[in-house]
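Table 4 source record.
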Amino acid sequence: MASIPKTQFDDLSLVRQGKVRDIFDTGESLLMVTTDRLSAFDVVLPDIIPDKGKVLNQISVFWFKQMESIVKNHIITTNVNDYPEEFKPHLKALDKRSMLVKKADPLPVECIVRGYISGSGWSSYQKEGHVCGIQLPKGLKESDKLEQPLFTPSSKAEVGDHDINISFDEAIKLIGREKAEKLRDLSLAIYKKGAEYALTKGIIIADTKFEFGELDGEIILIDEILTPDSSRFWPSSDYEPGRGQNSFDKQYVRDWLISSGWDKTPPGPNLPQDVIERTSKTYKEIYTRLTGDNV
C-alpha cells in the first residue's frame, strides 16, 4: 500500500486522529501511524501526498536515534514484526510509516526554536521589532541568521485550532519553572545538534518545533522531530538573506494555496497534480539528503 489517507482497520480501535497521524491504543503502548495527509494553515487538505507518511516517519526515526545522547524518546520499536498480535494482518500497510511508542503524558507546551528570522517571526519583527516578546537588534533582513537561536513556546491547541504563541513566563505558569527551563534547554540542544548535522548535508534548518511528554517522572521527546512538516528546511546552496528562501518542506504548497485565493478556512482546495508530485519528490529528497537512503 503506497499511499494511505487514513488507516482504516475495521478490527482496530482508533483512539485519536490528528492532522497527519492516526493513533491506536494497544493497552500498554500506542501505535502511531503516519498517513499521507497534508495540512496547511491548520487545515487538512483533501489530496494526499504519495509516500509522505513513510518519509516523515523514517526521518523522525533517524533523528530520534541521533538525539538519544541528549534526551530519551518514546519509541519502543519500529519493526512491524515485533508489533502486538492484533496488528499482524496489517503489517504491509504499517511498514515504514508507523512506530510502537510508550504512553507518555504530553506537556501542554509546543517548543518552537527559531535559528533564522522567517515566517510569522519575520512578520512580528517587521511590525513590532520583536519575536514572541524577545527584542531583536534593528536592521535584520528577512531570513537572516539570528545571533543565538530563540526558544519561543506556544500553547498546544485542540485539533483544528491555531496554536497560540506565549512568552516564556507564560510557559512557566503552565508547567512550572523547572519543567519550562528543561524544555527550553533540551529544545535548544536538539536544534543545535540537528542544524549542525543538516548543514553538512547542504540543508539549513531555519526553525522547528518539538513536543515532549512525561513518563515515570522523566521528560522525553514524543511525536515527530525535525521533519519537513515540523521544520523549515532551506538548501544552503542558494541561501541569501533579504528574501524568502527556496525550501525542502511544504512551503511550496503554502505558496500555491496563497496564490489560489483560498481564505484558509475549511475545506481546503484540491491541489494540482504537478503540486502533488513536486511535494512528494521534495519530501523524498530531504530524506535522501539527510540519511543517504531512499524511501
